[in-house]
Amino acid sequence: MLDGAISHDKITRFLGSEDFDAKSLWKMVKPMVRKYERDDGVLIVDDTIEEKPYTDESELVCWHYDHSKGRSIKGINMVNVLYQTEEIHIPVNYHLVEKDLWVWNKKKEKEVRKSSKTKNEHMRAMLKKCKENKIKFRYVLTDIWYGSAENMKYIAKDLQRFFIVPLKSNRNVALSLADKDKGLYQTVGDLALEQGSIITIYLEGLDFPLHLTKLIFKNEDDSEAVLYLVTNDLTIDADTMDSLYQKRWGVEEFHASIKGNTSLAASPTKTKRSQKNHVFASVYAFVKLERLRVEVKLNHFALRSKLYIKALQASFAELKRLQAIAGFA
After folding, report:
1. Could you give phi then psi for residue 216, rounded to 5 degrees?
2. What range does the domain containing 63 cover?
3. Which long-range contacts (CB under 8 A, 24 or more apart) does 318-325 make?
4. pTM of the predicted model over 0.90
5. Shortest CA distance to 230 belongs to which of 152, 155, 178?
6. Is residue 1 one of the residues assigned to a domain?
């Protein structure tokens, strides 16, 4: 496409030349964040696994449990922090999980890889860095796997921010401070809570009250599902909680785009440095697509489709030209 202006070897040398990481990403996205940031912005935390079934196993490319598939898969596990306002959603931090320890697994009766730090610890470190970078945000949104009391306490006390987090139905809560002091807890799933209503609860492990609401929705197979949301912002109603939490979908779009549009998986790299740098390049390519989306008002997949159609049209035009030279239709 570029008539040899950039060779394959040049890209290979680039991927192995130096270390590009979350700090490098922040330097590149900072001007865009500063342009669009707002006091009511949200930080969304989630992780994803890019499968690498044919790549040699290492502490970076290894086995991780995928909650969406209910099994372990081999690949690279990314923990991401996405910054979202009405105008943009931009990755501002990420961490690649490395399982740097070998531990004995009694159930499997063999040694398995394990990370010296949990994903929850990485999440808190990344949120701390976002505050140090002076990113304006009001809420932190996570999925159910990051809904620990320790994470909630960190966001509320250390970051001085609000969170909206789903709870598992078996979490223990008290309905009053007196009940909490007496240790009188009940599980969230046993509460007589109507859809769309809000009650004040005291979660086991926290010393401040939360608001809890219950949402009922249908899955793709028409089965009914229940979502329990809690927040330390006691000023908002159930509809606002639901509306704010819907913003979490932005991180799913981010994951879909880096996998489908910016070639996260299409990396023949062999070394840990080049694998990490390929991930960085894929994430930053997403940022460039996001800049285009803001300007031309087309989402990432529509942009890709538009370019693909233009390429096909150019190919067809060239075919017609060659047919005309050859003298047949």
Report:
1. -120, 130
2. 8-326
3. none
4. yes
5. 152
6. no
> Under the phi-then-psi rule, with left for phi > 0, alpha for psi from -120 to 50, and beta for the rest, what region is 158?
alpha
The answer as to whether 3 is a domain residue is no
Tens digit of each residue's pLDDT (9 = 90 or more) over 309-326: 999 999 999 999 999 999
List pLDDT tens digits, range 72-124. 999 999 999 999 999 999 999 999 999 999 999 988 889 999 999 999 999 99
- DSSP per-residue codes, 114-176: E-SS-HHHHHHHHHHHHHHTT---SEEEE-GGG--HHHHHIIIIIS--EEEEEE-TT-EEESS
Task: Decide: helix, strand or coil at residue 296.
Answer: helix
CATH code: domain of residue 306: 3.90.350.10
| Torsion region of 20: left, alpha or beta (phi above 0 gives left; psi -120 to 50 gives alpha) | beta
Closest CA to 79 of 251, 244, 230, 247: 251
Number of domains composing the chain: 1
Q: Which two tokens stand for residue 15?
A: 């991927």
How many C-alpha atoms does 108 have within 13 Å on its Cβ side? 7
* 149 or 15, higher pLDDT: 149
- Any domain includes 191: yes
- The reply to whether 97 falls in a domain is yes
pLDDT at 68: 80
Question: What are the beta bridge partners of residue 217?
Answer: 225
